Amino acid sequence: MDVNQRYNESFIPGPTVIPKEILEAYGVDYGSSDLEYSFFDSYSRTQQLVSTLLSTGHEQKKVEDGNNNKPWEDQVIIQVGEGMLALWSALKSSLLPGDRVLCIVSGLFGDGFISMAEGLSCQVSKISFPINTVPSTPEDFEKIRAEISSFRPHLITCVHCETPSTTLTPLSQLVKFAHEFDSLLLVDFVSSAFAAPLGVPLESIDLGCLGSQKALSCAPSLCAVTVSNRAWDKIQKVNYQGYDALLPWKGAVQKQYFPYSFYWAGLEGMKRSLEMISAEGMENVYKRHRECKELTRREIKRMGLKLYIERDEDSADSVTGVVVPEDLEWSELDAELRKKKVCFGGNYGELKNKMFRIGHMGSQANVDKLRHALEVLESTVQEL
């Protein structure tokens, strides 16, 4: 595609459209992140914003102690790399060969944890749910608890928002089970953080993974891992060393010495995004995403198209899946939409060419623009 070709409305579920205010942050020469004190102040402020905003609804007082230690500086580790780096960072930093890993699977990325853990020579068990559902019933959670009780995993993995299948998994029971059986809980909230509430205190998730390119609407250049005290205990025992290791970051801000030269412009873009979210108010941000989800599901039904996720409570706030009409090819529909400067996301794996996705996250959670894009979708389907 011609790099100068732009869409009037892009609703690809990541990377999302970067607003002008954030994009401007990438065009500044900030100097050396290794030597400037202001960089470390900016990094700490960004950590604090991540911690505070993700804790909305479950606030705990976070204050500096007498030694000028700031608790968020070890709770949120921001690294240079796309969201997948956060997943590898969390896994490799917290697992030893032979450790037991239980994967809660209800989609493509949940399944991906299996191969990742197996590649680290771990013993892996899984509990799978149909790709268009999430664990939701008492029977579902009893099944999970029984497997945890039997298998006694060192680590439990789950995906909060499965972007390909557009589901949202409730976390509260998983947090409860993880603490009951002394297992660490790793949650991939790359596509839900800052779009949908976690529903649990951030501190109750041992390892939480996010990327800058989804609801933060930044370039795919940074990721973050939230780390609990329980997780730090295991990370120190594992003592993994590598570019993606978490351990070298513990206390790094206080020491003002990082494992590598940091991408300062990327940090400023991320901080600016978080400041915009903070100014809007996290509850208002969540409301905006819910309204976009509700509009999309309502209009798709009105058009006579089929939603991939039937139950509203199972569907993500940040992305909606639509079944490709039987009499159309996705490639044909996609091409016609692009001619009209509207773009939605295709899919992967078993869902390729069967379901497309409308990404209403971050800057794309805009009711007016979304409504116009849905009108274009309706007219295009009618024409074809």
Structure overview:
By secondary structure, this protein is an alpha/beta fold. The protein is built from 13 helices and 13 strands. The chain has helices spanning 20-23, 37-54, 72-75, 83-94, 108-119, 138-151, 172-180, 229-238, 252-255, 264-280, 282-303, 330-339, 367-383; strands at residues 9-11, 76-80, 100-105, 123-128, 155-159, 161-162, 167-168, 184-188, 207-211, 222-227, 319-323, 342-344, 355-359. It has a seven-stranded mixed β-sheet with strand order 2-10-9-8-5-3-4, sandwiched between helices. A two-stranded parallel ribbon has the order 1-12. α6 (138-151) packs parallel to α7.
What does this entry show, briefly?
The chain has 384 residues and is α/β, with parallel strands linked by helices. The chain contains 13 helices and 13 strands.
Give the SSE layout:
Layout (H helix, E strand, L loop, with lengths): L8 E3 L8 H4 L13 H18 L17 H4 E5 L2 H12 L5 E6 L2 H12 L3 E6 L9 H14 L3 E5 L1 E2 L4 E2 L3 H9 L3 E5 L18 E5 L10 E6 L1 H10 L13 H4 L8 H17 L1 H22 L15 E5 L6 H10 L2 E3 L10 E5 L7 H17 L1
Parallel strand pairs: 1-12, 3-4, 3-5, 5-8, 8-9
Antiparallel strand pairs: 2-10, 6-7, 9-10, 11-13
Helix pairs in contact: 2-10, 6-7, 10-11, 11-13
